[in-house]
Structures are given as structure tokens and as C-alpha cells.
């Protein structure tokens, strides 16, 4: 599970705690820790049985949740949806 990477995405899109440049810096920093082959196989989960659900974090805003998912699907790694959004 690539929680530090997806955590930065949630902090930007859902919690509005990171500006776009800070999000980029965090994602780049995380990607630089591993080889490309490892980054391509990272399991990117925005939520799971261990974390709050994405739609709950988005306060039931489906548009915001879908924007967050769309961004995640554009990232290196394997995006994962845990039982829908």
C-alpha cells in the first residue's frame, strides 16, 4: 500500500491542506525514493478497510471524490478502488 503517496493526494484534493506546488514536491520526493519499476507496481489505494472511506472524507461530494480518483489513475502505480467510492 502506497499510503504516503495517496495521503498527499488526499491532503491536496480532499483536505485542501497542500497547494499544487507542495503536492508536486511531495509526490516527486516519494517517487525519487524508488526505482521506476517499483513505482509502476505500487498499490495506490485512497481508502481501504484500514482507513476512512474516500466518499466520507469528501463529505459525500461525489464530484470531488471522482476528481481525486481521476488524478490517482493518472499517477504511476496500480490504482485501487476498495468496494466502489
From TrEMBL:
Listed Gene3D superfamilies: Glycosidases
Alphabetical list of InterPro entries matching this protein: GH, GH13_cat_dom
Domain Glycosyl hydrolase family 13 catalytic positions: 1-84
GO biological process, one term: carbohydrate metabolic process
Name of the protein: Alpha amylase
Amino acid at each position: 500500500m502506497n499510503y504516503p503517496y495517496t495521503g498527499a493526494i488526499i491532503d491536496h484534493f480532499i483536505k485542501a491542506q497542500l497547494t499544487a506546488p507542495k503536492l508536486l514536491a511531495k509526490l516527486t520526493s516519494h517517487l525519487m525514493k524508488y526505482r521506476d519499476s517499483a513505482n509502476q507496481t505500487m498499490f495506490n489505494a485512497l481508502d481501504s478497510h484500514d482507513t476512512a472511506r474516500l466518499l466520507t472524507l469528501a463529505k459525500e461530494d461525489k464530484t470531488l471524490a471522482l476528481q481525486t480518483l481521476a488524478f490517482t489513475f493518472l499517477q504511476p502505480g496500480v490504482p485501487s478502488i476498495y468496494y466502489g467510492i
